[in-house]
Amino acid sequence: MAGAAIEQLIAHLSKLPGLGPRSSRRAVLHLLKRRETLLVPLLKALTVAAEEVKACGRCGNLDTVDPCAICADPERDDTVICVVEEVADLWALERTHAFKGRYHVLGGILSALDGIGPEDLNIAGLVARAREPAVREIILATSATVDGQTTAHYLTDRLAGLERIVSRLAHGVPIGGELDYLDDGTLSTALKARRPF
Amino acid sequence: MAGAAIEQLIAHLSKLPGLGPRSSRRAVLHLLKRRETLLVPLLKALTVAAEEVKACGRCGNLDTVDPCAICADPERDDTVICVVEEVADLWALERTHAFKGRYHVLGGILSALDGIGPEDLNIAGLVARAREPAVREIILATSATVDGQTTAHYLTDRLAGLERIVSRLAHGVPIGGELDYLDDGTLSTALKARRPF
After folding, report:
1. What are the pLDDT digits (tens) for B26-36?
2. CB B99 within 8 A of CB B76
3. A54-55 vs A62-63, strand pairing mode
4. Do residues B158 and B127 lie in contact, with contact meaning Cβ atoms separated by under 8 Å?
5. DSSP category for residue B116
6. Binary contact (A8, B50; C-beta < 8 A)
7. Which pLDDT band holds residue B1 (cuts at 50, 70, 90)?
8. Are A122 and A107 in contact (CB under 8 A)?
9. Considering only CA atoms, which of A31, A43, A15 is closest in space to residue B62?
10. In angstroms, how far is the first alpha carbon of chain A from the final one?
11. Per-residue DSSP letters for A80-120?
């Protein structure tokens, strides 16, 4: 046994995705050995996160300010809204530096299996934002899964009649991907959507 | 970007072993989504750890009390001391429930490459404890690596003359291990140390 307080800390840490009981134990020892350089700064950062981070009332992104830094940035393009399932997807797109428009986080995905319907997602907010005069295009960046595509179809219906371009991400061979290892679905999609060289 | 405060939290988390930037980001989102059930309890457990956990003055184990719960337990066997490199090794042995004696954490291992000599480890404390009249056996549970075996040999020399049994863990085929996948060193050691069936 490692002492009740330490065991409890290990138990809490092991609830994080990617950390099992064994790696949590290693992480806790690592933290306890580097108290001043690692544990105390982590504690401070967690306290700030717990107290100050909130969801942006406009797009659903997480930030210490509301509206979030992206919504408040006057440099970004008001004509395009990129719709994502989760904040993690927004962050992934931001890391590419390839998109300079605005975002909208649905907060999930339609799923008959999990009983998640349109009223559980922030779709009303999206439709309201899509009506704003500046908006010209809505990019549906939901997952390339059955539920993701169902959600995209549903949103297309909801956005119909607003006279906005509704687009989606391209599907195909991932950059660096070897054909040999790709699934049949991706490969046949990439073949059908082939483009002139 | 995910906001400066969140980026900082991700950076701190990604310094833990087993967590890279990507898994830290997932973990932070997971925490922020479950603020009351996960983030706040984790924060409390980390605060307790930062403020109360200390190394046991006797054996080197980490606990909120000093001497630690193992050293303070009157039920444990005072005649055997099991010597380990790190607290993690002590915890690993405790999980087996196979050892009911006392422990001694060296706090590292002799390593010419890393410049770690006998004065960097808690060897003086071990020799002092080994002299106590109750002690009859010292188990050297250092790693089965070159440095671990060097450390074990050094400790054997230091403990010579005290009239204590000095033993080490058995080497051989791990339980559940397939011969085909074992390295030659383990296999030849297991063959040489074979025992009647």
Report:
1. 999 999 999 99
2. no
3. antiparallel
4. yes
5. B
6. no
7. low
8. yes
9. A31
10. 64
11. EEEEESSHHHHHHHHHHT---SEEEE-SS--BTTTTB-GGG
- Candidates A84, A67, A132, A76; CA nearest to A100 is A76
Bridge partners, A116 (sequence order): A111
CATH at B96: 3.40.1360.10
Count CB atoms within 10 A of the CB of residue B65.
Answer: 14
| Residue B11 is assigned to a structural domain of this protein | no
Q: Which residues of A touch B67 (CB under 8 A)?
A: none
**Model-level ipTM above the cut of 0.85:** no
Q: Which two tokens stand for residue A34?
A: 């580097």
Pair B32, A97: CB distance under 8 Å = no
Q: Which of B13, B25, B70 sits opposite A91 (nearest CB)?
A: B25
> Which residue matches tokens 């439709």?
A127
- Give B186: exposed, middle or buried? Use CB within 10 Å, 0-12, 13-18, 19+: middle
State which residues form the domain around B94.
Answer: 77-168
Q: Are B110 and B53 in contact (CB under 8 A)?
A: no
Is A34 domain-assigned?
no
How far is it, in rounded angstroms, from Cα A175 to Cα A197? 16
Chain B nearest-CA distance from A163, in A, is 31
Please check whether residue A72 touches B, CB under 8 A: no
Residue A85 within any structural domain of the chain:
yes
Specify the range with the lowest mean pLDDT, choosing from B106-115, B136-145, B183-192: B183-192
Task: State how far residue A161 is from chain B, nearest Cα, in angstroms.
Answer: 33
Residue matched to tokens 């444990």:
B76
Q: Say yes or no for a CB contact (<8 Å) between A32 and B52.
A: no
- Quick check: is B188 in a domain? no
Q: Is the pLDDT of residue A18 over 80?
A: yes
Instruction: Tell me the shortest Cα–Cα distance from B112 to chain A, in angstroms.
Output: 22
CB burial of residue B134 (10 Å; 0-12, 13-18, 19+): exposed
Number of folded domains in chain B? 1
Residues 6+ apart with CB under 8 A from A58: A67, A68, A71, A125, A129
